[in-house]
Amino acid sequence: MRKTTSAPAPAPNPTDEAEAGGHARFPRLAAALARRWPTWLAVAFAAVVLVDLDDGRGFAAVLLIAALGYLATAVIDRPGAIWGVIAGLVALLALVRTWDVDPWLLLAPLALLLVVAGLVRGQLRRPGLFALQTPALLAFGAIALGAPHVPPGLGHLLVAAGLLGHAAWDAVHWRSGRVVARPFAEWCGVLDLLLGVAVLLLAAATRL
Q1: pLDDT tens, position by position, 1-10
Q2: CB–CB of 123/79 below 8 Å?
Q3: Is 98 part of any domain?
């Protein structure tokens, strides 16, 4: 009886393997990019607001809204609520400006009310990031209040320092996963970084 031998299997085609590997990597790359959606949203937002940048001191309001939003979210102790809190504060600020009223006349009492509520409820007495929300509001609020009332060069530097400082503050929250939702901390951190660098470049350009 004749013994039959099977034909050797064809050698793998390097081109086919490379294509298969490329197809496998593409979904992973797409998924990785999709997970960074807060970053892309911040880049798009920054591109819109920086189109007609002529006075970086106007971004002082960003510092105030961000710090107040973090404080309010800490008081209610619902990290995911930060998106709605910030949207509400932005809408409130826009409304107050249509009344030709200094926003501080409304935002300062609101901040005081939140601090009192947070201390009474105990949220702002918790150790760590919760207890640091009030000092952070005072620091960033002082920059937001002072920057529009100093010479432009100094005002730009103050706002840039405040924005870059808040970007670092966002990074701390992103890493801890506490107080505010991580996607928001990422979005706010990237936005603060881009705006801070833009204001810093504007300050350098105005001095030339």
Answers
A1: 555 555 565 6
A2: no
A3: yes
Structure tokens, 199: 């204001």
Specify if 173 maps to a domain.
Answer: yes
The pLDDT value recorded for residue 39 is 96
DSSP code per residue over 5-62 = -PPPPPPPPHHHHHHHHHHHHHHHHHHHHHHTHHHHHHHHHHHHHTTT-S-GGGGHHH
Q: How confident is the model at residue 203 (pLDDT cuts 50, 70, 90)?
A: confident
d(CA 201, CA 197): 6
Amino acid letter, residue 7: A
pLDDT tens string 129-163? 999 999 999 999 999 999 988 998 899 999 999 99
Rounded to an integer, what distance in angstroms lies between the CA atom of residue 41 and that of residue 46?
9
The reply to whether 1 falls in a domain is no
Place of tokens 């209610």: 76
* Domain membership of residue 127 as a residue range: 60-207
CB atoms within 10 A of CB 172: 15
**Total number of domains constituting the chain:** 1
**Cα–Cα distance list, 148 to 64, 86, 91, 92, 128 (Å):** 13, 22, 21, 20, 32
Residues 59, 205: contact at Cβ < 8 Å?
no
